Amino acid sequence: VQLQASGGGLVQAGGSLRLSCAASVSTFSIYTIGWFRQAPGKQRELVAQISSGGTTNYADSVKERFTISRDNAKDTVYLQMNSLKPEDTAVYYCNAVVVTFVRAEYWGQGTQVTVSS
């Protein structure tokens, strides 16, 4: 599975960005797909993820501000980020978990999100 992330950039606090993650396989075959982020000097953390059944999970710090969605026709997952804060600054990574006979995890390349105060 290959994941192609895009959509990062520089934005002022309070602004919005939308990240995209295009998968090389049908998103129906992916158990969960979503976004993690890693800020300098910090551990990588879950931001949001969506299951094949459409169940979503968000980090408490982004609830009510970020929305994850999936376009199955395009095998693409989106992360709409509103009301961005400087503490959202990080490299964002797309992540997918595929479960067949074994559990396999895949990562896309990171995309930088920088929120200026």
Sequence-ordered SSE layout with sheet pairings:
Elements (H helix, E strand, L loop, with lengths): L2 E4 L2 E4 L4 E7 L8 E7 L6 E7 L4 E3 L7 E6 L4 E6 L8 E10 L3 E5 L3 E6 L1
Number of strands: 11
**What is the N-to-C order of secondary-structure elements (H for helix, E for strand)?**
EEEEEEEEEEE
The major beta sheet can be summarized as:
7 strands, mixed
Instruction: Specify the structural class.
Output: mainly beta
The amount of beta strand, in percent, is over 45%
Q: What shape does the CA trace take?
A: globular
* Cα gyration radius (Å): 14 Å
- As a percent range, the share of helical residues equals under 10%
Number of helices: 0
The span between the termini is 37 Å
* Poorly predicted ranges: none
Mean pLDDT, nearest integer? 94
